[in-house]
Amino acid sequence: MNVSLGQWEGVKQAKSVAGWMLIFSAVIDTLMSLDFAFNQGELSLFIVAIAHLILLPVLAVSVVVVGLNTQDNGSLTAAPEEEKTMSQPATKPMAVGEANEIVSRLEEKLLSERWFLDPELTLSRLSRKLTIPAKQISIAVNQVHNQSISRFINAYRIEHAQRALIETSDPVTQIFMRSGFQTKSNFNREFSRIVGMTPSAYRKQRAS
To answer: Which residue ranges of the chain lie beneath pLDDT 50?
Structure first.
């Protein structure tokens, strides 16, 4: 199973919940068997009712928690150990020439191979592709462009979406998916942040 690193914590929670539910189900089955063996099933309805009272609320809460933990945040997906590197400004500057070289290599690959269109792109994956430590990439982008790596990548995605909105009549849903975003809400938020208006308003303005 392929899971984006940003969703791994939610997947682990889901597996844990599933494991406890299986154990709980086994306990209920055992109680039912004992009831039929010794009481001819007189307590079976009571056991089932108690099981439902416990099981349904736990499942509902679990679905909500796992869903919140697997939502895309509109930026590069990241492993927990990457979160701090990606979301916070770099504090340790590097030599100007080194930073410019790293960013130049990154920009060249983003344009020529269009890595930014991959919705599962991660900082670790960028690091492997460039053979440059993830922390150095983050520091270099922040130093040269004064923004996080996630916002840097999203700028490429929004630029791609802008062209698609002007040059095609494709629905916005198709455009955001082809531009590297995982959800429409995050696409709309990033588009409005960068362009200053919604995708629909942008398309209407450019068409007039």
So the answer is: 1-9, 11, 64-66, 68-75, 77-90
pLDDT at 41: 67
pLDDT of residue 16: 67
pLDDT of residue 73: 43
- Say what the pLDDT of residue 53 is: 76
Q: Which residue is listed with tokens 């439902």?
A: 52
Q: What's the CA angle centered on 173, arms 172 and 174, to 5 degrees?
A: 90
Which residue's entry shows tokens 């531009």?
179
CA distance 117 to 115: 5
Candidates 77, 62, 171; CA nearest to 118 is 77
